[in-house]
Structures are given as structure tokens and as C-alpha cells.
């Protein structure tokens, strides 16, 4: 009975591992290449599934792309060459991190431009306020001020 | 008064941004253009489905405007699409098929059952040509001009009305 329980426990412990069987086991010559593989498959977006990276998708095309990334890495290609290779076939859509180029200038530039604009507005407001605060009193205002102070004294 | 109006500026900016983002919600990501638009059809060297001895390459697509359809026996939508493709072939459009990630037996059986509108079928069992074309599902259809340049791309099912409304006008445009 105890032996059977032990077997059952072993089987149950294997269940989570079965759930992840879709992701292939790959062999790498060195940990650096392995890390590059992980990074690349995490930043490439699956063209079929709208919002999943290819390392996270069971779709056949994501599997093909992972295979290709692996082969290209074994070929000694650079990260940029591999990303170019994918963009040439599947378009900018597959990049989770869009590149900085003419077409994406607005995308990258707008937030920075808005922050600068906000800072400019704050600076102008502070300056305007300081100017009104330190403005000299006119003769009429000074006379009123004197009158108010004197009233307090005489009371 | 003028300064008061300036206070409305952030609200106007916010509404403009809201409208822009709202429009983004109605964009269908599967209608995006192929990355291969206006580029040469990728180089390949593959046997045909009809004759394993006959090897064809990209020069197959030169000289005449050709509709290249990516299909597979495993793809249910491809079966629904066949009447439209047969219709196009009957109207004199040259069609070439790519039998994508399939076996010869299943691919041939598919054509026997649903008809064969294709002048020839390129057999692509590993999906390598499909990969170079940026195909991420089937069916997908490419229009290639007489110089072998990709001019139009249709992702997914070709509806009966698409034949008249989009495919035929595109074919005429590049003829």
C-alpha cells in the first residue's frame, strides 16, 4: 500500500512537467548563447497570436520561429541579424521592442516631448508667480498699506 | 479671457489622445500588410506535388501575373476557399499552389476531392518557403506580377465577394 502511494505521488509530481512539454529542450555550447536564446524568444512576438512572445506560444509558427532562432544562433549570427531576419519575413509586428527609426520617431519621441513641455509649463508658471510676488508696490498701494499699519498702531 | 481658454488646452489634448487610442481599438491586427509587399518573391528550390522529380524555383512565377495560394490538407478554411479559387482559374487567372506542411498523399487526395485550380503545386513539407513568405497560417494568398514582385497579399479566407471586389481588380491592375 505504502509503495503504491509512493508511486502515485511520483506520477502526480510529474503532472506539472507534462504541462510544459510544448517548449523544446535545447542544448547550448555556452550559457551566454543560452541567455541570448531566452532573450530573443522573449522579445519576438508570435505573428499568429496577437499578444504572446514566441517562447510562450504553442502555435506552430512560434515553434518554427524558435527553431530558426536556435539555428541562426548556432550559425554565429548576431542578435541584430536574427531580428532583421524575422522582421524581413513577418514585419515590425514581431518586435515587442520597436526600433528607433524615422517611422517610429513619434512613438519614441512623443513621451519625451510631453515631459519637456510639462517642465517648460511649470517653469513658466513659477516664474510668472515669482514676478507678481516681488513686484514693487505702487504709490497708491503704499499709502493704503501705511494707513492700515498706522490704524493698528493707534488702536 | 484668453488665459481662460488656455486652461482648456489639456482637456483638448486629452480628448485628442482618447480619440486616437479609441480608433486603435478597431484595427484588426490580421489585416496588416505583408512584410514582403513590393519585394521579390523569395528564392526557393522545391519539387512539385505532381512530380517529385520536377524541381522549380522563383523563375516559375515570372512572365505572367500569378496568384500564389498557400494551402494544406489539414486546413479546413482551405477547403471552403477552393470554389473561389476554381472560379478565379475559370476567369483566366494563373494560379500556383504551395502545399504547405503536408504529405504528398494527403495533398493529392485534397486536390482530387476539392478540385485543382492550380497550374502547378509547389510541395513545401517543412514549411521553409512558407517561412520565407512570412506565412503564419493557411490559407494565405499572394499576387505576384510578371517580374516576380509581390504586389498584393490576402491573409485568410477568400470570401466569394472578395473574388470580384478585391482579387480580380488587383489582378487587372498588375496585368
Describe the structure.
- The complex is a heterodimer of chains A (155) and B (175).
- The mean pLDDT of chain A is 86.
- Chain A is built from 6 helices and no strands.
- Chain A is mainly α.
- Chain A folds into 2 domains: 77 residues, Helicase, Ruva Protein, domain 3 (Orthogonal Bundle); 52 residues, no CATH class.
- The termini of chain A are far apart.
- Chain B has 175 residues and is an alpha/beta fold.
- Chain B has one domain: Glutaredoxin.
- Chain B is 39% helix and 20% strand.
- Chains A and B meet through helix 3 and helix 4 of A and loops of B.
Question: Which helices and strands appear, and what pairs or packs with what?
Answer:
The complex is a heterodimer of chains A (155) and B (175).
Chain A: H1 2-19, H2 31-43, H3 60-74, H4 79-90, H5 105-133, H6 139-154
Helix pairs in contact in A: 2-3
Chain B: H1 2-6, H2 9-25, E1 45-47, E2 55-57, E3 66-71, H3 76-90, E4 94-100, H4 104-114, E5 120-124, H5 128-132, E6 140-144, E7 150-155, H6 160-174
Parallel strand pairs in B: 3-4, 4-5
Antiparallel strand pairs in B: 1-2, 3-6, 6-7
User: How are helices and strands ordered from N to C of chain B?
Assistant: HHEEEHEHEHEEH
CATH hierarchy: architecture of the largest domain in chain A: Orthogonal Bundle
CATH architecture assignment of chain B? 3-Layer(aba) Sandwich
- Tally the helices of chain A: 6
Radius of gyration of chain A, whole Å: 33 Å
SS strand fraction of chain B? 15-25%
Transmembrane segments (chain A): 105-126
Domain CcmH/CycL/Ccl2/NrfF N-terminal (chain A): 10-148
Keywords (chain A): Cytochrome c-type biogenesis, Heme, Iron, Membrane, Metal-binding, Signal, Transmembrane, Transmembrane helix
InterPro entries (chain A): C-type_cytochrome_biogenesis, CcmH/CycL/Ccl2/NrfF_N, CcmH/CycL/NrfF/Ccl2_sf
Amino acid at each position: 500500500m505504502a509503495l503504491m502511494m509512493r508511486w502515485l505521488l511520483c506520477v502526480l509530481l510529474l503532472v506539472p512537467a507534462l504541462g510544459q512539454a510544448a517548449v523544446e529542450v535545447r542544448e547550448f555550447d555556452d550559457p551566454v548563447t543560452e541567455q541570448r536564446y531566452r532573450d530573443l524568444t522573449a522579445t519576438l512576438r508570435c505573428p499568429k497570436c496577437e499578444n504572446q512572445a514566441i517562447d510562450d506560444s504553442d502555435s506552430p509558427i512560434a515553434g518554427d520561429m524558435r527553431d530558426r532562432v536556435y539555428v541562426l544562433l548556432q550559425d554565429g549570427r548576431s542578435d541584430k541579424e536574427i531580428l532583421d531576419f524575422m522582421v524581413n519575413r513577418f514585419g515590425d509586428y514581431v518586435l515587442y521592442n520597436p526600433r528607433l527609426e524615422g517611422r517610429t520617431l513619434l512613438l519614441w519621441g512623443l513621451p519625451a516631448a510631453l515631459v519637456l513641455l510639462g517642465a517648460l509649463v511649470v517653469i513658466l508658471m513659477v516664474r510668472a508667480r515669482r514676478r507678481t510676488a516681488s513686484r514693487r508696490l505702487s504709490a497708491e498701494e503704499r499709502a493704503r498699506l501705511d494707513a492700515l499699519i498706522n490704524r493698528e498702531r493707534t488702536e | 479671457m484668453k488665459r481662460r481658454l488656455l486652461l482648456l488646452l489639456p482637456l483638448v489634448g486629452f480628448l485628442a489622445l482618447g480619440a486616437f487610442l479609441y480608433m486603435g481599438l478597431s484595427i484588426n491586427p490580421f489585416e496588416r500588410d505583408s512584410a514582403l509587399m513590393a519585394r521579390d518573391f523569395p528564392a526557393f528550390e522545391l519539387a512539385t506535388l505532381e512530380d517529385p522529380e520536377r524541381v522549380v524555383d522563383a523563375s516559375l512565377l515570372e512572365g505572367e501575373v500569378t496568384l500564389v495560394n498557400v494551402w494544406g490538407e489539414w486546413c479546413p478554411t482551405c477547403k471552403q476557399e477552393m470554389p473561389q479559387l476554381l472560379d478565379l482559374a475559370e476567369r483566366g487567372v494563373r494560379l500556383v499552389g504551395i502545399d504547405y506542411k503536408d504529405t504528398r498523399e494527403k495533398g493529392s487526395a485534397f486536390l482530387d476531392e476539392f478540385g485543382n485550380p492550380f497550374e502547378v503545386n509547389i510541395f513545401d513539407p517543412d514549411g521553409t518557403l512558407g517561412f520565407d513568405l512570412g506565412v503564419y497560417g493557411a490559407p494565405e494568398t499572394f499576387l505576384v506580377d510578371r517580374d516576380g514582385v509581390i504586389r498584393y497579399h490576402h491573409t485568410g479566407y477568400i470570401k466569394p465577394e472578395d473574388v470580384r471586389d478585391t482579387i480580380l481588380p488587383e489582378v487587372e491592375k498588375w496585368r
